[in-house]
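Researcher: We're teaching a course module on how sequence relates to structure. For the next exercise, students receive a sequence and then see the predicted structure as tokens, so they can try to spot secondary structure elements on their own. Here is the exercise chain.
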Amino acid sequence: MNMSENTVLITGGGSGIGRGLAEAFYRLGNQVIIAGRRQVVLDQVAAANPGMRTIQLDIDNPDAVKEFGKKFAVEFPGLNVLINNAGIQRVENLLAQPPDLETIQATFTTNLLGPIRVTAALLPLLIRQEQSTIINVTSGLAFVPGSAVPSYCASKAAMHSYTLSLRQQLRNTTTAVIELIPPYVQTDLGPSHGNDPRAMKLSDFVDEAMMIILKDPTTTEIVVERCRHLRFAAETGTFDATFKWLNNGMA
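Model: And here is the predicted structure for the students to work with:
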């Protein structure tokens, strides 16, 4: 993956990790387009980064994603980097009655079906490029789940599995597939994440993630040091201990 002179689309680019990545790629001399539901938030990011483009998009709407794919190919025919970042996380009580099926459905729609739809809509354009990259943002919680957010963890685990299959099916094309696996980061994903001292600073996460790609442009996974204990818990035989640590308040 080249780090400059790309045309980069980032979903969920108005805040958090999406905005951090958008601004990092922008500083490296890429054309960056950020997409999201809230136009006012997108406009604030673009105003702070002159030349950055915005597109309002609800990835939960399959018809809107199809139409978006058609229009995007016309307006940005050189797209060669897609970052599927948009996601939601909500606390769930699985013992509650009646069960909160709406939260479960919304989480899987945004975190799993949305990225799959966007990828399907833009894949014909991406594979026409001499070189292109799809980056799917999952989570350390895809590998060791946090019981307070079960649907989030399950949707990210499913996205990890989908990413492996996508990479395998695209192995003979010009499109590479990378999985970005964040730890707990200070963002607005959860109600208190932004100022939780236990979470990794957003700027530190983005800087380390970008450095991993710069050092190894052929990498298939971006795992910062702070997330390695989650990502490799099963491989290192520490899953049970890590699960206990994580679900007892990260003490």
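Model: If you want an answer key for the exercise: Strands lie at 7-11, 31-36, 53-56, 81-84, 132-137, 175-181, 221-223. The helical segments are 16-27, 39-48, 62-75, 101-126, 150-169, 202-215, 228-231, 239-246.
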